[in-house]
Amino acid sequence: MGAYWGLTTLDLLGKLDALDSNEVIQWIMKCQHESGGFAGNIGHDPHLLYTLSAVQVLALFDKLNVLDADKVANYISGLQNEDGSFSGDEWGEVDSRFSYLAICCLSILHRLDKMNVEKAVNYIASCKNVDGGFGCTPGGESHAGQIFCCVGALAITGSLHHVDKDLLGWWLCERQVKSGGLNGRPEKLPDVCYSWWVLSSLIMIDRVHWINKDKLVKFILNCQDTENGGISDRPEDAVDVFHTYFGVAGLSLLEYPGLKAIDPAHALPVDVVNRIFFQK
Amino acid sequence: MREESMISKGNSLNLLDEFELILESDPLIDEVGFIHPSQFVTLNKEATSSLKHEDANFWSRDHKLAISTDVLLPLYKAAKDAFMHAISQYKRHGNLSDASGYASNLESEAMKHSKALLLLSCDFGTAWNFRKLIVSKKQKIMLFLDELLLSALVLSNSPKSEKAWCHRRWVIKMIAGKCSTLQDIAGKESELVEKIAERSKMNYRAWNHRCWLVSYMTTEQVLHELKKSRNWAGLHVADNSCFHYRTRLMLRIMEEHCHKLEDGTSDENNEIYQIWQEELDWNEALIKRYVGREALWLHRRFLSLSWIRHFTTTLGDTSNYRACKSSINGDISIFHG
């Protein structure tokens, strides 16, 4: 996953060639398990999380052809449960995030037909709360990260009619605090990573004009360590690759100059997404 | 250079041996923490029983274990290498017949290293998975319960560890059909979440686990939880998760109530009406006491919405509810005031 964050950030900055793509691809392919799923590193166990990251990184490098797409798709569709939900791996933990991972990954691989989309969508809809947001499982508390996953999955499958856009938009825009930053849940401190999760959700449901974009841009820029370049969760904190990705991706969604545009549902640069879906 | 790195590798292995020995010698350790070595002295002053173990790297007493921050990195590397080596050996030879004792030896080595590793790196999924594999092969209740102890120990130091919470859910699902004490477990789990939530505020993972437990609870337990969590919520008005937990409990009560209405096993709304009325009054008192708290207002949004949906739309279809409904219709003015 770290590789995905770092490499997508580089691509948004137009600097993907800073790394040796062959080396990265060789390493990724060594993380593939015989089941078709990918692990976070060599010798570890496979999980949907790392499978999507691996596929996304290969998409960035335009190297999806090194994959046996059917094998990966079989691994993913094998994790779908009777009620439409997805387990993250063979051990059976269920979470609406895993539904997003499966849907996004199969979409990139042009293999959505390998799963039961209708059931998957109904399961996600069952995770909706009275506040318009979504939780991990039915009845789970709304959380901006979960909301991104559920809205993203519904967007990819053309099922956004399950979202109450005004109600959810209201909950999401209430995430903006005085400093301009966004939090992920009520009463929490703002954090750069929510610039991605809240903002991309607002864009997908067409309510992004309900927050103050200029103040958010300023907040993200204030979180950059101008000496070593990275971005942190909040101003003055230590930087890391995770928050750097979410800061840059957030700025990209805010159309900050000098950055490539990013697709809010697939979390990949728009030119990469276009290459996947419009050039065959 | 080479000699130096050999020596440091040797030291790390001694460090891991020492750590694993401490863990084995006291299986009742219930709390672990990473602290600066200078704090060991302070710990000694506070402790009540005799010292179990102390040197520059570890401190253990009263079933509490402290690990010096100075040794964390070499200790983690040694534990990771030992575990990864052990599971690759296990995968290669573990399927041999147990008669030789070789396989079971490999297995216990890997289990020992996985425990050390998880206490140092709480979200090491491959190590949690290995434990699931071994425990599910043996199918002994005691071993499943040991996994609850280990994950609780990990949570004592890493209360937000998603993998540790997930491991508990897996264990509970595994013993759900076999163990008559499931309701006890659900009750104890709920207490564990409350204990952890006290030290780790607004912990989404912990509260999510508590919400998940609700489906394993009896109706009495749900009502008891609603009563019990009220005091906690009143003292933590900024913690939205606890209010969401109450939402979950109330919706479960509402769900069961609606089933009863449909079956015709109950024809009155009084109990549910009273629960909602009490929650609204209590919420109003909190809102007046703590001005401008988002979680309180969001909870009120839920209460009023569900009130309007249930008492003003589902009622009135049957004559039985009319008396109840008319009194409620009068009360709806509380939202306009």
TrEMBL record, chain A:
EC class: transferase
InterPro entries, A to Z: PGGT1B-like, Prenyltrans, Ptb1, Terpenoid_cyclase/PrenylTrfase
Pfam annotation, one family: Prenyltrans
Gene3D superfamilies noted in UniProt: 1.50.10.20
Entry keywords, A to Z: Metal-binding, Prenyltransferase, Repeat, Transferase, Zinc
An annotated GO cellular component: Rab-protein geranylgeranyltransferase complex
EC code: 2.5.1.60
Sequence ranges assigned to domain Prenyltransferase alpha-alpha toroid in this UniProt record: 2-267
Catalytic activity: geranylgeranyl diphosphate + L-cysteinyl-[protein] = S-geranylgeranyl-L-cysteinyl-[protein] + diphosphate
Cofactor note: Binds 1 zinc ion per subunit.
BP terms from Gene Ontology: gametophyte development; root development
GO MF annotation list: metal ion binding; Rab geranylgeranyltransferase activity
Presence of keyword Zinc: yes
Cofactor requirement: Zn(2+)
Family of this protein: Belongs to the protein prenyltransferase subunit beta family.
Role noted for this protein: Required for male fertility and root tip growth.
Assembly: Heterotrimer composed of the alpha subunit RGTA, the beta subunit RGTB and REP; within this trimer, RGTA and RGTB form the catalytic component, while REP mediates peptide substrate binding.
Protein name: Geranylgeranyl transferase type-2 subunit beta
Automatic annotation (TrEMBL), chain B:
GO molecular function, one term: CAAX-protein geranylgeranyltransferase activity
Cited InterPro entries: Prenyl_trans_a
Protein's UniProt name: Uncharacterized protein
Keywords, alphabetical: Prenyltransferase, Repeat, Transferase
Species of provenance: Salix udensis
Family the UniProt entry places it in: Belongs to the protein prenyltransferase subunit alpha family.
GO terms for cellular component: CAAX-protein geranylgeranyltransferase complex; protein farnesyltransferase complex
Repeat listed as a keyword: yes
Highest taxon listed in the record's lineage: Eukaryota
